[in-house]
Design brief:
- There is one protein chain.
- The protein is mainly α and 145 residues long.
- About 19% of the residues have low confidence.
- The protein has a single domain, classed as Cytochrome c-like domain (Cytochrome Bc1 Complex, Chain D, domain 2).
- Helix content is 51%, strand content 0%.
- The chain binds heme C.
- Heme C binds next to helix 3 and helix 4.
Length: 145
């Protein structure tokens, strides 16, 4: 009986420790307030920053025109063959790029970088108007086709 209790105590201790570890990135990412959450930003203004970030972080694999690079087997991100509709909404696309990009080190770019690149992709896919105000809490309402 005592052994069972000890096992319980030890395993719950591990659970607490790993819980703390996994929550720390969330804490640190909320300590800086990204400029993308400022109310005056539009999809267009964030997209302008996003274009430069796309060139430095994504274009080597997806092409500067978002066309994909067949020798690398990478998909187009906008244009006639792009298929971002499968992510349903801007939030779905943000979740996807945050959890997979850059390949090999997913989630390591600043949150603001993912947001700005997302806005660039949304503009290139005609999913939003550049003059619309950006609100990160409403990305679920931005449909992708
Ligand atoms: C090292 C090469 C590489 C880099 C850099 C890269 N990607 Fe990708 N990306 C891929 C590959 C390969 C795929 C195909 C799916 C897979 O195998 O992950 C892909 C798939 C995607 C998709 C899915 C498209 C679809 O039709 O489902 C999106 C969106 C995407 N990448 C966005 C980005 C963004 C945004 C960046 C920059 C932040 C980026 N990628 C950087 C290689 C790359």
């Amino acid at each position: 009986m005592l052994r069972i209790l000890l096992v319980l105590v030890v395993s719950s201790g591990i659970a607490v420790v790993s819980g703390c570890t996994s929550s720390s990135p969330t804490v640190s990412s909320t300590t800086t307030i990204p400029s993308s959450t400022q109310p005056s930003n539009t999809f267009g203004s964030l997209s302008q920053t996003g274009q430069g970030l796309y060139v430095s972080n994504c274009s080597q694999c997806h092409g500067t025109s978002g066309q994909g690079i067949s020798s690398l087997g990478t998909p187009a991100l906008w244009g006639p063959t792009a298929q971002l509709g499968k992510y349903n909404t801007a939030q779905g696309l943000l979740n996807y790029i945050t959890s997979t990009k850059p390949p090999g080190a997913p989630g390591t770019l600043p949150h603001e970088t993912y947001v700005d690149v997302l806005c660039y992709l949304l503009i290139q896919n005609n999913a939003v108007s550049g003059s619309s105000l950006f609100n990160e809490n409403q990305l679920n309402a931005v449909a992708l086709k």
